[in-house]
Amino acid sequence: MPSKHRFQEKKFLVIPGEKLNLSKRATQPGTELSDKKHAKEAIASDVACLQKMQELLYASGTRSLLIILQGMDAAGKDSAIRHVMGAVNPQGCRVYSFKAPNNSELEHHFLWRAMPCLPGRGMISIFNRSYYEEVLVVRIHPQFLVPQKLPNVDTSSSKSLEKLWKRRYKEIAHFEKSLVANGTLILKFFLHVSAEEQRLRFIERLTNPEKHWKFNSKDMEESGFWENYQQAFEEALARTSTEESPWFVIPSDDKWYARAAIADIVSSRLESLKLDYPSVSAADMALFDQYLAQLQSKK
Known about the structure:
There is one protein chain. By secondary structure, the protein is an alpha/beta fold. The protein has a single domain (9-296), classed as 3-Layer(aba) Sandwich (Rossmann fold), CATH 3.40.50.300. It has helices at 36-60, 77-85, 103-106, 137-140, 158-181, 195-207, 217-223, 226-240, 255-272, 282-296; strands at 64-71, 93-97, 124-128, 184-192, 247-251. A five-stranded parallel β-sheet has the order 2-3-1-4-5, with helices on both faces. Strand 2 (93-97), helix 3 (103-106) and strand 3 (124-128) form a beta-alpha-beta unit. Helix 1 packs parallel to helix 9 (255-272) and helix 2 (77-85) crosses helix 9. The radius of gyration is 22 Å and the shape is globular. 35% of the residues are buried. The model has no long low-confidence stretch (mean pLDDT 96).
């Protein structure tokens, strides 16, 4: 069930190695959709396609899909997952939210805790935040490195830290390259919101009783590091976006536009795998004929 794709994904793509400047990337919606109603219709079409493609992915059992969502606080990661992937069969899809690492995770390499969450063949895993936090929030707050007990890393030395970030970019790229070689389709989305839109969403969380539970005072604290985070994202995305595991910068000041763009890209990329249902052997077909005859004779 091919979907009618409305977005040119090239406009969102981070070209490998480009000098990314997020201030020059749109946060406002493009012109592909006329209004919220149009966006909902587009999402519904892509979600129907995704349901079919997930069934093929699961049935074929040869490929897997890893979706990574990153963005500033209140960028819309949770709602994007809910609206885009909420209708797929939960037997074939898992969502993982990566919070601060626990003591056991701190005893291992920073990529270790993602290992059990990776999708097996036929499965979809969605990471709400991910191992990329280790070159984002940890870069903004290098004191978080202290409990990791890394050898030859001086958290008070900018030279030592810069060497660490560059090493981690390479480790992430190599890690993802190995996943792709093993049959995993990786799609990474940065939900790009403006500082003003984040401010408005924080206000809504403070004034709407139904959204009070979403507010976290730490989010307010982190918003004070806005420029630092933009710079960290720029370098991380540019250094880890590859042809095989690309980053897409999605304008997210309008949540419905962002959801529609993500749904469009995921369904398009899944379609490009050209999956098919597994074929049945001649011996099995003979058995099918036998069983069919038995069932039909019982009328």
